[in-house]
Amino acid sequence: MQDIIEQLSGYGPMIISAAKALAVLIIGWMAAGIISGMVRRRVNASRRIDNTIGNFAASIVKWAILAMVLVAVLGIFGIQATSLVAVMGAATLAIGLALQGTLSDLAAGFMLVLFRPYKLGQYVEIGGTSGTVVDLNLFFTELSTPDNVQIILPNGQAWGAVIRNFSHHATRRCDLSFGIDYGDDADQAMRIILDLANADSRVHADPEPWVRVVNLGDSSVDLGVRLWCDAADYWALKFDMTKEVKEAFDKNGVSIPYPHQVEIQKAG
Q1: Which domain holds residue 94?
Q2: Residues in domain Mechanosensitive ion channel transmembrane helices 2/3 (predicted)?
Q3: Is residue 262 a part of any domain in this protein?
């Protein structure tokens, strides 16, 4: 028993140091979350500052606090900050090569916040991936698709890809196409579409609605429609107008042809 007590007493300082380190780590992690949340709320409360900057600033504060917590934990185990800096300085090349992707994402994150090609809440397409911007932090951009799927996109890929921002402008042009039979009156069909567009309060008068014959297809005369509306009304207008034009065509005897084939048999 005496030997066991002596052996355990030798581990006492190590156990105490581990307990202190664990306490500092837990408290530091909680403090990082609380302080970063306060920064986010404070910045986002200002109407002159975009919410994207608030989230990004909160992310910087959180990681800075966690870095200080890591240094404090290492100090508890007797590793001085100066020694840590010296070791990291000697291993800069290796760390840079190992983390070049992460460092690239970090640099791209600053560029995205500086130039702001997209903001929180906007619907964008980045490198062929579409969704609403939910978060932009130091390392990645989070998108949410219309069917509520989360997409995590590294900032390095986002900055180097083609970005299409569907929410940047306040208005959008809604393009529609309708095919009518060759035997129908094209002017009548165009008047029907224009009347429906002018009667819809979501369609802007300037630029005015545009309807033209754009193509003579194999089995239909194709009408192109261009309507300007608020960006928020784009999809609802597109779906509603498609339905209303179909019903109006049916009511006025304008037929929408469908592809058909004619079989010709050669007499033997």
Answers
A1: 1-113
A2: 60-100
A3: no
Domain with 219 in it: what CATH number? 3.30.70.100
Rounded CA separation 135/143 (Å): 7
How do 129-136 and 123-126 pair as beta strands? antiparallel
Strand partners, 63: none
Give how many domains the chain has, as a whole number: 3
Give bridge partners of residue 227 from the DSSP assignment. 174
Residue 258 falls inside a structural domain:
no
Return the structure tokens found at 41. Answer: 């709320």
* pLDDT tens per residue, range 184-195: 999 999 999 999
Closest among 136, 138, 134, 137 to 121, alpha carbons compared: 134
Judged against a pLDDT cut of 90, whether residue 267 lies above it is answered with: no
Task: Look up the pTM and report it.
Answer: 0.64
